[in-house]
Amino acid sequence: MKRFLRRLAITLGLLVAVSAGAWLVLQRPDIPYDTLEAKYGYPDSQYMDLPGGVRAHYRDLGPRDAPAIVLVHGYSASTHAWDAWAARLSKSYRVVVLDLPGHGLTRTSGSYVAGRQGFVSVVDALTSRLGLTRFTLFGNSMGGAVAWTYAVDHPGKVQRLVLVDAAGWPSEKSSGALIFNVLRHPIGRAVLKDVDTRMLVAQGLRSGYWDQRLVTPALIDRYVELSRGPGHRDVLLSLQSGPRRDATAAELSTIHAPTLIMFGQEDRIIPAADGEKFHKAIPGATLILYPGVGHVPMEQIPDRSAADLEAWLAAHPVE
Q1: Which of 2, 21, 181, 234 is 20 to 30 Å from 270 by CA-CA measure?
Q2: Considering Cα of 211, then 276, then 77, then 309, what sign does the dihedral take?
Q3: CA 178, CA 163: separation in Å to the nearest integer?
Q4: What is the pTM of this model?
Q5: Domain parsing of the chain, residue ranges
Q6: In angstroms, rounded to a whole number, what is the distance separating the alpha carbons of residues 313 and 171?
């Protein structure tokens, strides 16, 4: 028995040592913003200091006297998600693309409190500083939740609303992306805070993009590296546990701006059935479902989805 206990103690000791060594190997420090800006910034990148210690990264494209469009990305994404649409739309519209706090190249102070409502305030502050009193608002995934919330709270500013695989319904599930399941639990968030998440990020992107050819090493690098901007991981992790404002038919029924809802039918992050719910709840909304497309139509089928979008915009002109 003593020999067995001794061997057991040695085995457990080795397991602890190996686990500690693996933990140290997996540790990943923050990446300085200067490094991230040099790699992922655009020649036309701009920055704006906003209330709450936010230094927002944004792009302001297209003719200044054209109708304005504002693009809001999803969870852990960045302005890059809209590149194809921004390039095409900016030929006819003024297009503003921003990074939300804790995402992309937008910086936050240590006191910043993350949350969708705070993101709504950032969108409002940035657009107000740019002199945009009325505009068309786009949002994908979490950014879609920011967009419909903004439309409910600021109805006089939103001329048209475009929701692309938008989040918000309480029945929303993320069974396809393992990383979301891990992040739902406090222990999972604590474990992931300072370690290499590349494998989980890659799996999540493959679930979201559907077309596996789009999930390139460069795409995975961008998501992983931008998540390591100073303070970003704290924001990203807190979003999984903080308060959220769920969509309700009653609230959405107050949206009277022309609304386009676009959803990939094969979305494994947010079910396409949620697109049907938005369509039913928002008066006069238009719904386009894409067979064989996942969570990011603007990236998976940029030309086809942009053509549908432009046709809808032309059919719903603004002054």
Answers
A1: 234
A2: positive
A3: 24
A4: 0.84
A5: 39-315
A6: 30
Residues 204-257 have pLDDT tens digits of 898 889 889 999 999 999 999 999 999 898 888 877 666 778 999 999 999 999
Instruction: Give the H or E element holding residue 278.
Output: helix 272-281
Measured between alpha carbons, how far is 74 from 81 in angstroms, rounded to an integer? 9
β-partners of residue 262 are: 164, 288
List Cβ neighbours of 301 (8 Å cut-off, separation of 6 or more): 290, 293
Indicate whether 145 pLDDT > 80: yes
Between strands 46-50 and 54-61, the pairing is antiparallel
Superfamily assignment of 39-315 in CATH?
Alpha/Beta hydrolase fold, catalytic domain (3.40.50.1820)
User: pLDDT, tens digit, for every residue of 12-68?
Assistant: 443 333 333 332 333 467 899 999 999 999 999 999 999 888 999 999 999 999 999
* CA nearest neighbour of 138 among 204, 202, 205, 88: 88
Give the tokens for residue 120.
Answer: 């709504």
Helix, strand, coil percentages, rounded to 5, for the chain: 45, 15, 40
Supply 49's token pair.
């200091």
The single-letter DSSP state of residue 44 is T
